[in-house]
Amino acid sequence: MSEHYPFVNYPLPYSYNALEPYIDEKTMHLHHDRHLQTYVDNLNAILKANPQLQNMTLEQLILYAPTLPANIRTPLLNNAGGVYNHRFYFDNMTSPGIDRPLGIFAFYINQAFGSFQNFEDQMAAAALSVFGSGYAWLVADHDGTLKIITTSNQDTPLSMNLHPLLNLDVWEHAYYLKHYNNRPAYIHNWFHVVNWKTVSQNYLAFINGYT
Ligand SMILES: [Fe+2]
């Protein structure tokens, strides 16, 4: 993807109420229109002040940031990561319907975790283990091995040389309006709106060398 400065906040790939009753419309407005928009605006402000970075993609900015002075590096990582992680989160959800992987990807999940239930249990445990704000992720390492990891704040798996497949935002703003402080209930509901089709396509493209 060659998108670079100025970044835009793309519309959601579904309606704001598409994830009801599991994730509510009001939360989706707040999360996409306010929180993600703020990350986009802050990222553009940083890049406006640093023209040498304006031709870089989001992924390039995240990977290049550690080489920059701390006064640019930290806000750049926080805000480029905030845009990347939120796009990834929104793009890998969909209307409730198919709540587990199908076809060959179901085989890979079973192979890696023993069963889909084990995968859900491990993903939920990872999401619960995040202290404060962050994400749980399903990722693939360089040889395609599936793993569950967590990241803090707006860190990304890209910086760990891991290929992201699915992320679960456990910042309180992702669930507080509907679920209050009940993170386990939000996690339970989120499993109903995972877009296993996009996750599966992403993984198959990765292991076949297309991404
Ligand atoms: Fe978020």
UniProtKB/TrEMBL annotation:
<feature type="binding site">
    <location>
        <position position="173"/>
    </location>
    <ligand>
        <name>Mn(2+)</name>
    </ligand>
</feature>
<dbReference type="GO" id="GO:0005737">
    <property type="term" value="C:cytoplasm"/>
</dbReference>
<dbReference type="InterPro" id="IPR001189">
    <property type="entry name" value="Mn/Fe_SOD"/>
</dbReference>
<feature type="binding site">
    <location>
        <position position="86"/>
    </location>
    <ligand>
        <name>Mn(2+)</name>
    </ligand>
</feature>
<feature type="binding site">
    <location>
        <position position="169"/>
    </location>
    <ligand>
        <name>Mn(2+)</name>
    </ligand>
</feature>
<protein>
    <recommendedName>
        <fullName>Superoxide dismutase</fullName>
        <ecNumber>1.15.1.1</ecNumber>
    </recommendedName>
</protein>
<dbReference type="InterPro" id="IPR019831">
    <property type="entry name" value="Mn/Fe_SOD_N"/>
</dbReference>
<dbReference type="GO" id="GO:0046872">
    <property type="term" value="F:metal ion binding"/>
</dbReference>
<dbReference type="InterPro" id="IPR019833">
    <property type="entry name" value="Mn/Fe_SOD_BS"/>
</dbReference>
<keyword id="KW-0479">Metal-binding</keyword>
<dbReference type="InterPro" id="IPR036324">
    <property type="entry name" value="Mn/Fe_SOD_N_sf"/>
</dbReference>
<comment type="function">
    <text>Destroys radicals which are normally produced within the cells and which are toxic to biological systems.</text>
</comment>
<comment type="similarity">
    <text>Belongs to the iron/manganese superoxide dismutase family.</text>
</comment>
<feature type="binding site">
    <location>
        <position position="31"/>
    </location>
    <ligand>
        <name>Mn(2+)</name>
    </ligand>
</feature>
<dbReference type="InterPro" id="IPR036314">
    <property type="entry name" value="SOD_C_sf"/>
</dbReference>
<dbReference type="Pfam" id="PF00081">
    <property type="entry name" value="Sod_Fe_N"/>
</dbReference>
<feature type="domain" description="Manganese/iron superoxide dismutase N-terminal">
    <location>
        <begin position="11"/>
        <end position="94"/>
    </location>
</feature>
<keyword id="KW-0560">Oxidoreductase</keyword>
<dbReference type="Pfam" id="PF02777">
    <property type="entry name" value="Sod_Fe_C"/>
</dbReference>
<feature type="domain" description="Manganese/iron superoxide dismutase C-terminal">
    <location>
        <begin position="108"/>
        <end position="201"/>
    </location>
</feature>
<dbReference type="InterPro" id="IPR019832">
    <property type="entry name" value="Mn/Fe_SOD_C"/>
</dbReference>
<dbReference type="GO" id="GO:0004784">
    <property type="term" value="F:superoxide dismutase activity"/>
</dbReference>
